[in-house]
Amino acid sequence: MTFWERIKQSLRNLMAGRQGVDQLSLALVWTGLGLYVLSALLGSGLLSLVSMAVYGYTLFRVFSRNTEKRSAENRRYLTRKNRMQTNAKQARTRFNNRKQYKYFRCPSCKAWLKLPRGAGVVTVTCGRCHNSFTQKG
Ligand SMILES: [Zn+2]
Q1: What's the CA-to-centroid distance between 23 and ligand 1, angstroms?
Q2: CB neighbour list of residue 114: distance below 8 Å, 6 or more residues apart
Q3: How many angstroms does the Cα of residue 115 sit away from the middle of ligand 1?
Q4: Same domain? 50 vs 105
Q5: Are residues 133 and 87 in the same domain?
């Protein structure tokens, strides 16, 4: 076995049964880096402590043997991230189309709905919860 094969083998042994790097850990690394840069810019000792704590937590997650719990955390993180990206995308679409459509929320289920501008006062039925209400377009 060559030197590098031995290193790879011992890394495999070290990481066996452990969580390893997942998407949440990567996000934490970037968060920690951002906090560290911010702490250096502001000269804030507290922020650099927080960034250290973020790195400590990241290492804990990567080497954790409780992979079930860590994977559940990662899934929650991905769900939340996905929802935020969808919300941001929809907000951009609403902003870009604001001249053609009036956007408003359903008063009962809060779903986003739209009417063409200048449609006048019309009765709207929500596609999600079938609640009917009058809305000015
Ligand atoms: Zn509704």
Answers
A1: 34
A2: 94, 97, 101, 102, 103, 104
A3: 14
A4: no
A5: no
**Contacts with 116 (C-beta within 8 Å, 6 or more apart), sequence order:** 100, 101, 102, 137
At which residue do the structure tokens 């609403």 appear? 94
Note whether 30 and 57 are same-domain residues.
yes
The whole-number pLDDT of residue 137 equals: 83
> Radius of gyration of the chain from Cα atoms?
24
And the tokens for 45?
């000792």
Q: Is 50 exposed, middle or buried (0-12, 13-18, 19+ CB in 10 A)?
A: middle
Q: Give the closest residue to 23 by CA, choosing from 81, 69, 88.
A: 81
Q: How far is ligand 1, taken at its centre, from the CA of residue 105, in Å?
A: 8
Q: What is the block-wise mean pLDDT of the chain (137 residues), using blocks of 10 residues?
A: 92 92 96 96 94 97 95 98 97 97 96 94 96 93
How many folded domains does the chain comprise?
Answer: 2
State the Cα–Cα distance between residues 94 and 121, nearest whole angstrom. Answer: 20
